[in-house]
C-alpha cells in the first residue's frame, strides 16, 4: 500500500496551492489528485455522523477512500498531499497523523499573520462566503477574536509547538512565505531536498495561484458566487440554450470582469496596526520557537 511520505500542513493563504502545483511538476513526486483532502483533520473512526458527498466530489471520510487517492502511484519517490487545515485543527490532526503515518515529513508555510488575515478577508468577499456577515478585520479582532477563523488561523505558536512536541523536530520543515515570494526556486529546491527527491529540478515558478481579487460590485458577485433564486432561474434558462462548459465559461468571464485587484479595498494603516498588536505576543514567541527573525512582521 502506497501512503504519503510528506504532508503540507499549512497555512491557508500562504502559497500552499502554488507549492502544491510546483510539487506536481517534479517527476519524482506524486501528489494527491485532490488538494485539501482534510482527512487527518477529523477523527473519522469515532465520528458518529458523516456528512454526505456533495456534487461530483466524494468526501475523504474513511481510511479506504484516503488510500484510494494514492492508488495510481507508480515509481515516484515522494508521495504527498496538502491540507492547510492540519495546522488549524492541530490537536486532532497530529493525533491522526501519529495513528496512520507516524514517520511522515511535514511542511508548514507561515505568512505574516496580518497579511494572511487580509488575504483571507478578501477571499471571503470574492467567494461570497457568509454573505452580509463579513465584518471588518478590526471588528473581528475586537469582538470575535476567539471565534473568527480568519483571525485565529494566524496564531501559529501553539500549533507549531504542538507538532514539535508530538513529532521529531526533523520531521517538520518551516517555510516562511517571505522567502517563498523572494526566491521561489530556492525554496522549492529546499523542499525537494527535504522530501528526498532531486533538488536540482527547476519547476516553473512563474505560475502563481489564487491572486487576490476584489469584486467591483459585491451584489453582482454574490449573485454569481452563491446559491440564490435569481441564479437558479438564469441557470435554468441558459441550460436550454448552451452546454455546461459554455455556461461555466460565461459565468467565469462575468466574475473576472467584475473583479479588480486588492487596491480596490486596501488594508488601512490603522487596521494593520490593530492586527499587528493583536498578533505581537504570538509572533515573538514563534520566532524564538523556530529560531527565525520575524521582526519584519511587527513593522
Name the strands of the widest sheet in spatial order. Answer: 2-3-1-4-5
Main pleated-sheet profile:
5 strands, parallel
Tell me the distance between the termini. Answer: 49 Å
Count of spatially separate domains: 2
Second CATH tier, the architecture of the largest domain: 3-Layer(aba) Sandwich
What is the share of helical residues?
40-55%
So what's the CATH class of the largest domain? Alpha Beta
Please count the beta strands (DSSP E, at least 2 residues each): 7
CATH H level, superfamily name of the largest domain: P-loop containing nucleotide triphosphate hydrolases
Low-confidence runs of at least 5 consecutive residues: none
**Topology order in helix (H) and strand (E) letters:** EHEHEHHEHHHHEHHEHHHEH
Shape designation: globular
Please provide a written account of the structure.
There is one protein chain. This protein is α/β, with parallel strands linked by helices and 299 residues long. The protein has two domains: 6-113 and 154-210 and 282-298, 3-Layer(aba) Sandwich (Rossmann fold), CATH 3.40.50.300; 214-260, no CATH class. Helix content is 47%, strand content 9%. The protein is built from 14 helices and seven strands. It has helices spanning 16-25, 63-68, 85-88, 90-100, 113-126, 137-144, 149-152, 157-166, 177-182, 184-195, 218-225, 229-241, 244-257, 269-290; strands spanning 6-10, 29-31, 78-82, 105-110, 172-176, 214-215, 259-260. A five-stranded parallel β-sheet has the order 2-3-1-4-5, with helices on both faces. Helix 4 (90-100) packs parallel to helix 8 (157-166). The protein is globular and about 55 Å long.
Amino acid at each position: 500500500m502506497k501512503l504519503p511520505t510528506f504532508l503540507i500542513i499549512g497555512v491557508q493563504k500562504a502559497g500552499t496551492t502554488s507549492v502544491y502545483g510546483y510539487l506536481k511538476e517534479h517527476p519524482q513526486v506524486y501528489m494527491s489528485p485532490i488538494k485539501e483532502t482534510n482527512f487527518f483533520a477529523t477523527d473519522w473512526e469515532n465520528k458518529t455522523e458523516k456528512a454526505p458527498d456533495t456534487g461530483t466530489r466524494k468526501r475523504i471520510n474513511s481510511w479506504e477512500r484516503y488510500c484510494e487517492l494514492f492508488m495510481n502511484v507508480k515509481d515516484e519517490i515522494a508521495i504527498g498531499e496538502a491540507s492547510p487545515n492540519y495546522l488549524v485543527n492541530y490537536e486532532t490532526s497530529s493525533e491522526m497523523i501519529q495513528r496512520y503515518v507516524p514517520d511522515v515529513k511535514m511542511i508548514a508555510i507561515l505568512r505574516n499573520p496580518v497579511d494572511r488575515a487580509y488575504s483571507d478577508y478578501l477571499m471571503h468577499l470574492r467567494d461570497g462566503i457568509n454573505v452580509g456577515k463579513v465584518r471588518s478585520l478590526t471588528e473581528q479582532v475586537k469582538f470575535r477574536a476567539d471565534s473568527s477563523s480568519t483571525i485565529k488561523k494566524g496564531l501559529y505558536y501553539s500549533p507549531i509547538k504542538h507538532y514539535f512536541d508530538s513529532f521529531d523536530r526533523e520531521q517538520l520543515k518551516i517555510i516562511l512565505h517571505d522567502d517563498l515570494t523572494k526566491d521561489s526556486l530556492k525554496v522549492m529546491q529546499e523542499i525537494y531536498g527535504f522530501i528526498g527527491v532531486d533538488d536540482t529540478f527547476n519547476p516553473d515558478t512563474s505560475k502563481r495561484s489564487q491572486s487576490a481579487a476584489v469584486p467591483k460590485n459585491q451584489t453582482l458577485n454574490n449573485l454569481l458566487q452563491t446559491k440564490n433564486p435569481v441564479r437558479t432561474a438564469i441557470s435554468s434558462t441558459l441550460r436550454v440554450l448552451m452546454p455546461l462548459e459554455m455556461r461555466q465559461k460565461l459565468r467565469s468571464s462575468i466574475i473576472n470582469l467584475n473583479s479588480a485587484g486588492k487596491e480596490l479595498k486596501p488594508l488601512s494603516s490603522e487596521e494593520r496596526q490593530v492586527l499587528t498588536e493583536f498578533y505581537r505576543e504570538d509572533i515573538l514567541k514563534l520566532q524564538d520557537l523556530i529560531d527565525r527573525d520575524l521582526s519584519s512582521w511587527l513593522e
